[in-house]
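Narrative summary of target 7.
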Amino acid sequence: MKLNLASGQMYLEGYINIDNASMYGGNMSVDKQADVFTLEWEDNTVEEILLSHFAMYIPLQEMPVLLKRWYKWLKPGGRILIETGNVKAIAKYILDTNDPDEINSSNGVMQLFGWESTAGHKWAWCPETLGQQLYQAGFTLVEQGEGYFHSNPVRDFLIVGTK
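Modeled conformation, tokenized:
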């Protein structure tokens, strides 16, 4: 079983797509409508958990609680895949340009704070900070790569934790 948590408009075949449908005017397809902050699941039943561009909505203090909960859901050898914007790459992007439109773009300030169609970002992550959180939650192997769900490898990164 694979879970696509906070799936938004990214419906994936082969996953149980879960979202509370609070954004995009509810214009999304889901298999289960639920709040991923309070969602419960049976322990040791999930092969993979995917969070694509949701980590920025999780406050720093709440991330360890959620990662530990999701860790329990995973079977031994199960994986969590998290793609999000890299705060270090975003800062570099902002610092490397003098174009106000680029500074305020979705690769710049908008990525840090969100935009009108979103609920507002709560935190910004980089591989080092999110990797530390994964290890502290119990994941024994943490690997990092370029982001690909939003086709923006310069801004985004993918981090994978294995139970």
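Residues 85 and 156 are 4 Å apart (CA to CA).
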